[in-house]
Amino acid sequence: MCARLPATQARFNHVDGDHLTLLNVYHAWKNNHEQSSWAYDNFVNHRSMKSADSIRAQLLRTMNRYGLEIKSPDFNSKEYYLNIRKCLLAGFFMQVAHLERTGHYLTVKDNQVVALHPSTVLQHKPEWCVYEEFVLTSKNYIRTVTDVKGDWLIELAPHYYDLKNFPQCEAKRALERLYLKKGKGGAGPSS
Q1: How many angstroms separate the CA atoms of 31 and 106, rounded?
Q2: C-alpha distances in Å from residue 57, one per residue of 23, 50, 52, 54, 190
Q3: Burial, 55: exposed, middle or buried (Cβ in 10 Å; 0-12, 13-18, 19+)?
Q4: How far is the C-alpha of 29 from the C-alpha of 55, rounded, in Å?
Q5: Residue 166 clears pLDDT 90, i.e. is over it
Q6: Is the sign of the CA dihedral 23, 16, 80, 78 positive or negative?
Q7: Pairing mode, strands 140-148 and 113-116
Q8: Are 83 and 141 contacting, i.e. CB atoms less than 8 angstroms apart?
Q9: What pLDDT, on a 0 to 100 scale, did the predictor assign at position 2?
Q10: Where are the alpha helices (DSSP H) in 12-132?
């Protein structure tokens, strides 16, 4: 492995996780005029960037066709990454893991013991995280992980985080506290 790789990758790291780091790479590629030489110099797959750009263009065309408003806070706004994290959770609400007191993660509802994949940029262990992939090697890993807040779970997916259908675990107790804090009595949204 090239000695420049970790330092090069670290320039794009986002404190809240891998999805936002990937977005930082995309923004940097766009700001460098989509140059393949920039991608090569920064250990980025140029074809993957072109593919991401194509998917973004398809999404924009779909939104325009359905008359959906395209709005986003300014890139420098504190709401920018916050909104993206919430959108990730809204889409991947079933792919959430909770950090247990023992220091390992359990996937929500099916209680699979998992660890953050070694490739994550996260330098901390968030209480809740949304993940893109479940990877089974010699150990169960969750890969492409982003820090999310427990409050968002009950705000964005109350139907899924209804405690009546939740297994007994630390995540359920943490959610009960969140529901109590929000004034919902700890029984979930259907109470």
Answers
A1: 39
A2: 15, 11, 9, 5, 39
A3: exposed
A4: 15
A5: no
A6: negative
A7: parallel
A8: no
A9: 43
A10: 18-31, 36-41, 46-65, 78-91
Res 148: pLDDT:
98
Whether the Cβ atoms of residue 19 and residue 84 lie closer than 8 Å to each other: yes
* Token pair belonging to 170: 């630390």
Residue 147 tokens, joined: 């820090």
Of the pLDDT bands very low, low, confident and very high (cuts 50, 70, 90), residue 152 is very high
In the prediction, which pLDDT does 89 show? 98
In the numeric block, the tokens 């889409």 are attached to 91
Whether the Cβ atoms of residue 153 and residue 89 lie closer than 8 Å to each other: yes
CA distance 144 to 122: 10
| Angstrom distance (rounded) from CA 186 to CA 183 | 8
